[in-house]
Amino acid sequence: MNSKYEDVFYRDNLATKLLGYLVLFAMFVSFLLIAWYAPVERTMGLVQKIFYYHVPSAWNAFLAFGVVFVASILYLTSKDRKWDILAYSSVEIGVIFSLIVLITGPIWARPIWGVWWSWEPRLTTTLILFLIYVAYLLLRYFSGESNQTANFSAILGIIGFLVVPLVYTSINWWSPEAQVHPQRVGLGPHMLVAFFVSLFTFTLLYVYLLIRRVQMAYAKTAVDDLREQQSE
Amino acid sequence: MTVPLRAQHIRKSFNNRPVLRDISLEVRPGTFAVIAGGNGAGKTTLLRILAKLVKPDDGTILIGEKDLWAETDEVRSHLGFLSHNIYLYDELNALENLRFTARLFGLKNYQSRITLVLQKLRLYHRQFDPIKTYSRGMQQRMALARAILHNPDLLLLDEPFSGLDESGVEIFTAFIQEFKAQNKSAIIVSHNLRTGYDLADVLYILDDGRIGFQERKQDITYEEYHTEYRRILEAER
Amino acid sequence: MRQIFAILWKDLQLEMKTKESFLSMLTFGLLILVLFNFAFDLTPEMKRLITPGLLWITFLFSGILGLNRSFSLEKENMAIHGLLLAPVDRGLVFFGKFGSNLIILLVTELLTLPFFLLFLNMPLFEHFWWVLGIIVLGTIGFVSLGTLFSAMATSTKLREVMLPLLLFPVSTPILLAGVACLRQILSGEPFTTYRQWFSLLVVFDIIFVVVPSLIFEYAIEE
Questions:
Q1: How far apart are CA A185 and CA A181, in angstroms?
Q2: Considering A201, C57, C132, C215, which has the largest number of Cβ atoms within 10 A of its Cβ?
Q3: CATH number for position B134
Q4: How far apart are CA B20 and CA A221, in angstroms?
Q5: Residue A39 has what DSSP assignment?
Q6: Which residues of A lie closer than 8 Å to C, measured between beta carbons?
Q7: CA-to-CA distance for C199 and C201, rounded, in angstroms?
Q8: Chain A to chain B, count of Cβ pairs less than 8 Å apart?
Q9: Domain contains B57
Q10: How many domains does chain B have?
Q11: Position A71 pLDDT exceeds 70
């Protein structure tokens, strides 16, 4: 149980620190690009710049859940707790990014379209994703750490991920009139650059946070193992 | 299948608290092993692992040459398990409960077997009454009925005598003796030292997740056993 | 296979003796209906519009009650261990529970329908078989996921509350598709207008009956 966790993630402390600085730097550069390099959008004005945070956050939220899905399957097939750790670490980060989407969405929508919320497919699917994330965390929080909890979490991770495409499809068909959400945004070349830099930065941020969170979990496991050894 | 059970280096922890540290034991066909120990020593956990209800963190369990955990569910038909809960449905009567058990175990022509078991355990006259109307002792006998219905080769009994009155104990003991005569084995957890001693061929005492004491009954008197038990319990405090 | 029927029959026997699930689900469903009538001042036109939605909401909410009950029965006396001790493949246990939950909920739904007719003047019997078909399809997916999740929920501290938290978000496609189909059917529209929703229900059912049956063992073993 002990030495299993002292592998790549745990050992790579220097690399993680460097990654952290890289992320910091990238966010700074990204901010500059968003603030000055990308022009102010014609029809929507300054508020439109939220888009550079809104969309990458959504990307992260779904990427995180993809990781949860794969980790959940790997956990159930291998019974190795490290996959369970990866899964719930990704959930904790994913829930934050989905919350960012749900907050930035209305902030963007209100001045432009006059409503705080519209039940359009992408936003609503993110809401459902957020609810599944929260259910996952509640399930874990109210169950304590055990093999059973890990099993249950993995089940939710798998089912949740499989449901999301169907949720999106059903909401998409549901109200085509609620398509106030821009589908194809006409992005000028400067905006594209700013967008892709932001996307890259956010992805990097996700990876960094994930590694840090997993390291924390391993550290806790190591402490628990020591405690277990103590009592023998 | 009357083959030995061999458990080796069983380890189990719950939430980082070790319950079983390194348990190895062997039960030969036609012998009974009796396990005693203080509360929380791990007796129930051990039995549940042997019944394939809980997976151990480490160790192997061999029934004959077959690995209990590597085998399919079919291996369960050789095991009979009795524990603190009766594992039956209150609202159904004895007959319905046993019919369900029989079907689950894939028994053919189970009606005669059910009748036989009910008669042996003196529940036949109440077979149409829902289990919830049974006394504690009757429920315990019902639990035994469920455990033995499919004619297992190995019985795992966790405090089988709890809740039984004198006639209940009589019925149980009679049944156990018959079981032994068929060259079958049992592992019994018992708080009652005297009864345990009488039934056993091999005596074990669990001490904080380890086997603190192991002796064949023929090599030790009851008094010595009792003293040893006391000693281990005192040391635990 | 026999074992699936054994479990199914045992559950139905229990339900027939106590009628607990069935009565509580039926009563709850009717209460929702009555409360809705009081809470909203509905014109006939509005009634027509909300009927499909209200129908499904009623079914989903009362369905939760039955699903919770199914596994709490197994928790009494830990009868679930009786199931686990038997040489039964865990996937078969799933189908047994799924089957009994499905039958009980479908019966409740069928008995609730006349009340919808009564309260909302729903043109039920003109399109009865189509309505029934959609209800069955939607219920299958819901009960399948519900069986999986309620097995998990009863083992957690939050028990009954955990089930709706887990089940409702993932049931969104069923709700949307079920309501869309019923809306078209009750307006007398032909199948082509809701064919895609119907397919969605079928796809949903296939995926979410197969997948839970494969991972159910992790929901009930320790």
A1: 10
A2: A201
A3: 3.40.50.300
A4: 20
A5: P
A6: 76, 128, 131-132, 134-135, 138-139, 142-143, 147-148, 151-152, 154-156, 158-160, 162-163, 166-167, 169-171, 173-174
A7: 5
A8: 15
A9: yes
A10: 1
A11: yes
| Model confidence at A5: pLDDT above 70 | no
CB contact under 8 A, B73 and C77: no
Task: Tell me the sheet residues that pair with B188.
Answer: B34, B157
CATH number for position A192: 1.20.120
Q: Which two tokens stand for residue C214?
A: 């494969």
Q: Which domain holds residue C214?
A: 2-220
- Find chains touching chain A: ≥3 CB pairs under 8 Å: B, C
User: Are A228 and B16 a contacting pair at CB < 8 A?
Assistant: yes
Instruction: Determine, yes or no, domain membership for A124.
Output: yes
Tell me how crowded residue C37 is: count the other CB atoms within 10 A of its CB.
14
To the nearest whole Å, the CA of B216 is away from the closest chain C CA by 30
User: The domain containing residue A30 runs over which residues?
Assistant: 6-38+46-180+187-221
User: pTM score, two decimals?
Assistant: 0.90
Spatial separation of the C-alpha atoms in residues B187 and B34, rounded to whole Å: 6
Give residue B80's pLDDT band: very low, low, confident or very high (50, 70, 90): very high
Question: Contact, B39 vs C71, CB < 8 A?
Answer: no
Work out the pLDDT band at A2, boundaries 50, 70, 90.
Answer: very low
Question: B55 lies in which domain range?
Answer: 5-166+181-222
B14 chain-A contacts, CB cut-off 8 A? 146
DSSP state of B185: E
Output the CA angle A199-A202-A204, nearest 5 degrees.
Answer: 110
Residue A232 in any domain: the answer is no
Return the bridge partners of B62, or none. B6, B67
Phi-psi region of B93 (alpha: psi -120 to 50; beta: other; left: phi over 0): beta
- The answer to whether the CB of B27 falls within 8 A of the CB of B5 is yes
Quote ipTM for the complex: 0.91
